[in-house]
Request: fold
Amino acid sequence: MTYPRIILNKGKEFSLLRRHPWVFSGAIAKKDNNLQDGDLVEVFSNKQEFLGIGYYAGGSIAVRLISFEPTTIDEEFWFKKISKAHEYRKQLAILNDQTNVCRLFFGEGDGVPGLILDYYDGHVVMQAHSWGVYLQKDNIANAVKRVLGADLKSLYDKSAETLSKHFSGKTENSFLLGSGGEITVKENGNLFKVDYVNGQKTGFFIDQRENRAWLGDYCKDKTVLNTFSYTGGFSVYAAKAGAKLVHSVDVSAPAIELCKQNIELNHCANHEGYAVDTFDFLKDKKDVYDVIVLDPPAFAKSRDSKHNAVIGYKRLNVMAMKLIKKGGIIFTFSCSGVVDKFLFYNTITAAALEAGRDIKVLHYLNQPPDHPVTPFFAEGEYLKGMVLWVE
Ligand code: SAH
Reply:
């Protein structure tokens, strides 16, 4: 099948030839004036060489490529894409007898910008971040059914929250198959209640699975503070690893409620949850904690807010470094895509200087393989963290 053509300016094909899937509006020489947001298009170089197929959007990223080969975008196309993502995770045994939750499809990392599929023990939550992906919803749903077969218990479309304001009003979150909402999943043998209908994002922050396991190694007999705890992912691992006391802090009361339930579900004690602002909570807590987790929400969602985000990360880390006990451990993260790892590391350096504490970097942390990063799309590496030892 053929789609309307977009012709690029001279020399603008190189990033696509390097398999970076975005076409910026300034790279376009010619396009059909009737193109609508979400339309499928074929992209050609100025010399009329085929480069790929993508979906059009009116913004500064004008096209996002979903295929570098000529093809027809139908159910079969989606079946192949989602099968490939599923096979990759199977090969890495990400789902196993200890873990039944993972990201099944991660946007560009799996070859389709704007598509997220999260798997919760057979319940799949879909989030389309672009209208072009959303328009393919039925094909995607059929493909997911074919890939997972009898393993699929429900499929929930939660795109109203991820589409831009202009489009989110045109859709409502709904079940495309089955029903559900509140379930219990297992991650590295730990149990978590997940409310994927009412919870944040798709219900659980699956991207911290490996980092939570690392945290356990530092928590035996320690006093641990988990800030921005959400439903207690890090808290449960700390408590199960034998922490003396775990404090969870999140501004969301429902998150703290679920956090407490998750602690109980895992038969842990010595935990207290606080539904308050982290910055307020930290003010008077000097020399209480041996281990502190700092996992704030993305302080920067766009380039414009990068500077303020850096100030926010610095302020938070200065506070934690000043109050932690001698020889304490800080797990510090940023999930802002626009704050790259070098900027984040420099921010941590600046924080240590301001706090007047010597630090050592024990580990660099990142996102797990079910949130794959390809060298063709460095922007996909959004989660970065460090384990710090504070003198
Ligand atoms: N570490 C968590 C995920 C954190 S997501 C996990 O492993 O599951 C970020 C969390 O920060 C959200 O739950 C949000 O409610 C919370 N949050 C945002 N601003 C906050 C603030 N100022 N103080 C405390 N919590 C905040």
